[in-house]
Every structure is written in C-alpha cells, then in structure tokens.
Specification:
alpha/beta, Rossmann fold, 4 domains, seven-stranded mixed sheet, five-stranded parallel sheet, 28 helices, 49% helix, elongated
C-alpha cells in the first residue's frame, strides 16, 4: 500500500532570497520575451524574411501577452527600417472616376497638401487682380479695336459690292440680308411682294448671284470673329500662365527630386490655364454672390486639392499599427458620400484610407477572431496580400449590389507584414479549411502557456513585474510579494516545475494588490497584499461553490464523509463558472445484477454524458474482460450513476472512481466514505493523470472542513499528478497536522486496497486470484453469476 504524501510535496514554496533583490526597485525592467524561445525565433524569422506570403500567425492561450509581446518585439525591428512613403489621392483630369494615387517622400504628403492650398489661394488672388487691372483692360481694348477696324472694313466692302448690284446689305443675328433698291429706296417686304412676278424673279436670281460673290467676304468675316476669339483666349491664357508660372516655379523647385509630384504640378498648371473661365476668372461686377454660389465655387477648386491617406510625417522607421476594430472600412478604406441639393455625391477628397494604408511599409497586427467576424474583411485582406496592392472600393459595389456609379481609385502598391493574433484552434481551423491561409501566413509563432521554472526565468519574471509597476505607476513589490506571485504563477501552470506564461492573469493580481497596498498606505506591495488579492478574487466568484457546500451540509446533496458503503464512492470533478473553477465531490454508485447488458452508463443512456466519458466506461469494460473473462463469459448488468447530477458528465477523470465502485459492488467489500477519488484508468489498470487536481482536492477539503476534520478525511490522486500540486497553504497545514491526507496511486490495485483495507489479490497460476482478496471475491461472484445465467437458460429450454 502506498504511503500518503508529506506536506512538503504538496506545493512549491519560493524562497524570497532566490530573487536576489529586496524589491522591484532594484530589478531591471524586462526588455525581452520571457520563456518563449520558440515564439521568439518564429517572430524574428517572420519579421526579417521579405519573400511573399511569410506573414505571421501568433497562436497561443489567452493572456500570454501575444499582442504586447509582438508589438514590443517589433519596435526594435521597426526603428531600423526606412520610413515608408506617404500616399495621396489627386484628381484625374482625364477621368473623374479614377483618382490618381500619388506617392510622396515620407512626411511630404501633408506638406504638399498645404503648399497646394496656399498656391491655389495665391493664384486666385493674383489672377483675379490681373484680369481686373487697367493694363489687362487696355491691352484687351487695343486688341478689340484692331479686330473691329478690320471687321468694319470687310463689312464696308461687302456693302459696296451689294450696292453696285442694286441691293442694300443689312447685318442680322441670322447673317446677311440683301434688300432690293429701286430708285434709291430699299423695298420693304410688302413693296417687294407688290412687284410683278417677273421683277420678283429677277431680283431673286440677282440676290443668289450676289450671295455667291459675297461668300469669300463672309468667310473672311467669320475668320475674323474666330481669330478675335482665339486671340482674346490666348491673351487670357498668357496672362494666366504669367501669373501661375511665378507661383508654380517655387513648388517645382521644392519638389524637383520627385518626378511624380512635378508631373502632378504640371498637370495642375495646365488645367488652371485651360479651365480659366470656369474657376479663376472670378465674379466681377455688382452681382451679389450667394452662399450657393460660394459653395459651388469651393467645389470647383477641389480638383486642385491633395487628399493624404497615408501620412508618415510622425513616424520614425516602419509603422506598427494595431487594429482593434477591423471592420471593412477600417482595414481597407472607404469612399464617403456627401449630400448636395438632396443628392449624394463624392469625389477623390472623400476617399479615406484604412489601417492597411497606415501600416503600408511596416506591420499590421489584428486579432484573428475579430477579423473573422466579418468574412468580407478577411477576404479583402487576403485579396490585398495576394495582389500586393490596396484597392479602395465600396463594399456593395465589390459584392455586386451597388446600383450607383462610384469612384474607382487607382490601386496603391502594398508592402506590409500582417500578424494575426489568435488561439491554436483558430489557426488549425484556418489551416485546415482555407488553402489561401496556408499560402499567406506561412509563419506560426506558437506561444506556450507555461515556461520552465529555472533561475533565468524566475529573474525574468521579476523583471516583468518591474516593467508592469513602472509602466502603470504602481507601487513596487517587495521580495515576499515577488515570491508569492511566483508561487501563484506556478499554481496557474498547475505544475511545481513550471511557471505560467499567462502574464495577464498574474498582472491582474498585481494591480489588485496595489489597490490594497494603497488603502493601507504601504510603501511596498507585500505578500499579504498579494494573498488578499487572490482571496478577494475567489470570494467575488465562488458563490456557486458556497451554495453547493451549503447544500451538502444540509443534506440536500448527499455526500458521505465517514462510514463505509458497498458500491458507493465519492468522485471529484471540476466545475467552471466564468473565470473561476472549483472542485466538488459527487456520489457515484454502482448496482450489479444478472444479465448480459454488461456495463450500462446511465448518463449515456439518457444522453447526459459526452463521448470521452463514454470511452472511459468502455475502458472499464475492457479492464474487467482482461482480468476476469479468462475462463468464463461476463454475464452481468451493472449500472453506473452519478447521483444528483442534472447537467451532464464529460471527461474520463472519474473512470478509476467508477471502477473502484464496481469492484466494491461485485466483491461486497465496502468503500470507506471518508475518501474522495479522482483519476482516469487504462485497460491495464494503470491510473492516469487528470486535470484540475488542486481544485478537486481543495473542493473536498472544504466540505470536510465544514463538517469538521476528523483526521480520517483523505483523497486519492494519480501518482503522476503529484508534480501538479500547488495546494493552498491551509490544505498543506492540515496535512502537516495529520488532519487531512492525500494518497498517490499508480494502479487500481493500490487504490482499492486503500479504499477497502482488503488486498487486491494476485493472479494464481491457474488464472484465478487469492481467495480472500478483492479480485478473488469479484472472480467468484462473476463465476456464480455466469453459472446462474447458464442454469436459467437450461431451464428455459
């Protein structure tokens, strides 16, 4: 029979001296990853490699600091990389619906926008002054006089030609009119119609002949009109060009190193000259300008604006963007609309960039579960990564539901490293069902939930606490608080040889301990403050645990903690309520009778158990067959029940417990009810480790303490779980005082002997077992049951 565990084996106690400092004031803040060498190497590789598709998926449990660690790790890398270009959208003068993407040197996008606005304002003023000046009016009048003089000469010549043929020439809005002249008097229409038909016909023929003679002069007159218009327009353009070249020359000189910008400036200059009448001539005269006129005027000048959608003026090195709300618009950009006279309109100044634009040339970090909430975002991100460019478009237009024409901005080249943050199950899901995911996220940075409890990690952990208190302006921790926190970390890891890498959970304890230390005006956070924080968190969450304990005390839930009973045992399970888990005992009973049904899991029969629990029951059946079906068939009907369980059962951690109860029922040996048991079993009878060992032991301890510890209360656990024990100090003290006991077992034989006080029994050469052992009694009972069934079958025949 195995010995009970000594109190020294029930938890790891951290010596404050191991820290090597009196408080976190003497400890250097942490600046590297703690206990994550695999993740560190994956991140380093993923960030450095430039080939296509080597984006990163940081996988691991919650609260392991994946986002913070990734961001902190990136900062050193990003500082050494070049600052990426700014990106802007400008008007496309050839196609209004396809705004042009303009690349600017880092930080110059915002400057170009300001320079363009100042230049346009100056141009509006300068051009307006030129056109309203006396010099402009004088030159224009002089040109008009010259053109009008020649025009009058042509008209005089045409009149003379017409007069020589007996006609008077009149200029009308529809052209030239030739009127017959009789005796020096132009005929009116009535007079002309009163003439004889022969005279009317003669005049008509002469008029047609005269029109043919006047055609060259008419063409010359039209050419003069066109020439006058062209010369006036050319003069206006020359005046405008004179004004705009002076303003534009300084900008061309300033941005001469960037061909894209200078080409844009030349386009602006050309358009200003060509679009002079519509925009820059202004409103002259005494007509009052209305608000609507002013608004239209402003819209006309929008074509000269610069819309900066990626501004790196404040970035040193490559940008690092953490997108906390990855909607389609926030990630991929959008095209906004505005209402004008009851109609929705848009233009290139209403294009807005997303986090991909902001992170272009750097790094983008997104939580996987958030981006997967909208598959349009996920598909859009993949599309951009595959194409190597960002296309801004309305989502309805993208999916084919848009009925109104919108803008189609030119794509922007994309060079970004994307980091998705998620758990391992999300990674496996995407890897299994999305072939494109495998091609785009080729690097997996796997964050572990635990780390080795070695001196280097202990000191690094202390450095993490220093970073925490410094960054969040908390009170420093003394050595006792550090030691208690490290113990708590080992408890979270459920392993005496490891520490938890779920830094977020430990950091919350520090923050709460700081609150209690502040209430006491303590200089440092001490172990007592840490302990108070841990206990307070449990108290806020353990209402259900207390209710169950109360029901057991009042015998609403039947749990025996003394005496002995056949086929009845206390099993241990873990219940979870949100972020709090606790252990609770359950009564398990087995009823045995004749039959051929074998083992019947009542929970499974009524669909209240999961597949893993069902597997455990079948393993028990296999164990019975291997031990006792050597010379006879197993003809029994055994029903296994979790009494007063109304929520279902899952897991195999009670399979050894169920087997103990079955052996008791078959052998007739009573089980001591002061024991509670946990552990799974295999078909060979080896007791296997389970999870939640600490919670299960403490849960039974609380029940026994409430009823009064009598020195007999005990728990049986798998021997392989001893390394997982990090029990509360209260339980350790009770074991040390002999008021509570914990027994580790490796096999079912060891466990049944402890529970019944009867030897399990060894197999004899004939295949049977020692007569007065548990196995001997079970073997005898099963043989008797088989013979009884055989007799009944013979009688029935």
């Amino acid at each position: 029979m195995p010995s009970e565990l000594p109190s020294t084996s029930l938890r790891w106690t951290c010596d404050p001296k191991i820290i090597g400092a009196k408080s976190t004031e003497e400890i250097r803040p942490l600046d590297v990853l703690v206990g994550q060498p695999r993740a560190y190497e994956a991140l380093r590789f993923g960030f450095i490699i430039k080939e296509h598709g080597f984006n990163i998926f940081a996988a691991g449990p919650q609260a392991t600091g994946k986002t913070t660690t990734t961001t902190d790790f990136l900062e050193d890398i990003a500082k050494k990389l070049p600052t990426p270009y700014d990106w802007c959208y400008v008007h496309n003068f050839e196609d209004d619906y396809q705004p042009k993407a303009l690349r600017c040197p880092p930080g110059l996008g915002k400057q170009l926008k300001q320079d363009m606005r100042e230049m346009i304002q100056a141009a509006r003023l300068a051009i307006s002054q030129l056109f309203e000046g006396d010099d402009y009016a004088a030159n224009r009048d002089e040109m008009s006089l010259k053109l009008n003089k020649r025009r009058q000469e042509v008209i005089t010549q045409m009149g003379q030609v017409a007069e020589s043929a007996g006609f008077a020439m009149q200029l009308t809005a529809l052209g030239i009119s030739l009127v017959p002249v009789v005796k020096g008097h132009p005929l009116s229409e009535e007079e002309f119609l009163s003439l004889p038909k022969e005279s009317q016909q003669k005049f008509a023929e002469q008029r047609e002949t005269m029109k043919e003679k006047l055609q060259p002069l008419m063409r010359e007159l039209r050419d003069l009109e066109l020439k006058a218009h062209d010369e006036m327009a050319k003069f206006d353009k020359d005046v405008t060009l004179y004004a705009i070249e002076r303003l534009m020359s300084s900008l061309l000189e300033k941005y001469k190193q960037d061909k894209g910008i200078t080409d844009f400036l030349h386009e602006i200059q050309t358009h200003i000259v060509e679009d002079l009448d519509r925009s820059f001539r202004g409103r002259r005269g005494d007509k009052k300008e209305t608000d609507q006129d002013a608004s239209a005027d402003d819209l006309a000048f929008r074509v000269y604006d610069v819309n900066v959608i990626a501004d790196n003026s404040g970035v040193q090195g490559a940008p690092i963007v953490v997108e906390s709300n990855p909607t389609y618009d926030n990630v991929l950009g959008r095209i906004e609309k505005e209402s004008q006279l009851g109609t929705l309109t848009t233009d290139f100044t209403l294009i807005r960039g997303g986090s991909l634009h902001e992170a272009n040339g750097g790094f983008l970090i997104i939580r996987a579960e958030q981006i997967l909430r909208d598959l349009n975002v996920y598909e859009g991100l993949k599309r951009a990564l595959k194409a190597g460019e960002i296309v801004i478009e309305d989502l309805p237009q993208r999916v084919g539901y848009a009925s109104v024409k919108s803008l189609a901005p030119q794509p922007i080249p994309l060079d970004v490293k994307v980091v998705l943050i998620g758990d391992s199950s999300t990674y496996q899901l995407l890897f299994a069902y999305d072939p494109e995911f495998r091609e785009l996220f080729k690097v997996k940075a796997d964050f572990d939930s635990t780390m080795e409890k070695v001196d280097s990690n202990l000191k690094s952990y202390a450095g993490f606490f220093t970073t925490l208190v410094v960054n969040e302006n908390l009170k420093h921790l003394d050595a006792s608080a550090l030691a208690r926190l490290l113990e708590h970390s080992s408890r979270l890891a459920e392993d005496q040889t490891k520490l938890s890498a779920q830094f977020g959970l430990v950091a919350d304890v520090v923050r709460e301990a700081h609150f209690y230390a502040s209430q006491e005006n303590a200089k440092y956070i001490t172990a007592s403050h840490v302990e108070k924080a841990i206990e307070a968190k449990v108290y806020r969450s353990n209402l259900v645990q207390d209710k169950i304990k109360e029901y057991i005390q009042r015998n609403v839930i039947f749990i025996s903690t003394d005496g002995a009973a056949v086929g009845q045992i206390n099993g241990l399970s873990v219940l979870s309520v949100g972020d709090f888990s606790f252990g609770a005992p359950s009564r398990i009973t087995v009823a045995v009778g004749l039959g051929k049904e074998g083992l019947i899991d009542v929970q499974r029969e009524v669909h209240m158990s999961g597949p893993i629990h069902g597997k455990g029951v079948m393993i028990i059946a296999g164990y019975l067959a291997s031990k006792f079906a050597y010379d006879k068939p197993l003809t029994l009907s055994a029903r296994i029940v979790f009494e007063q369980n109304y929520e279902g059962v899952e897991g195999d951690s009670a399979s050894s417990t169920e087997l103990y109860a079955l052996l008791s029922a078959l052998s007739g040996a009573p089980i001591k009810q002061n024991f509670a048991v946990t552990g799974s079993v295999n078909q060979s009878g080896d007791v296997q480790p389970i999870g939640g060992a600490n919670e299960k032991i403490e849960g039974y301890y609380e029940i026994c303490k409430a009823r009064g510890l009598n020195g007999q209360h005990s728990v049986i656990i798998p021997a392989s779980n001893v390394q997982n024990l990090m029990l509360k100090q209260e339980v350790v003290d009770a074991v040390k005082a002999g008021k509570f006991h914990i027994y580790p077992v490796k096999t079912i034989e060891e466990g049944i002997e402890i529970l019944t006080g009867v030897p399990a029994g060894k197999r004899l050469p004939n295949g049977g077992y020692e007569e007065d052992s548990i196995y001997g009694r079970v073997d005898k009972r099963l043989r008797e049951m088989a013979e009884t069934v055989k007799r009944f079958q013979a009688f029935a025949v």
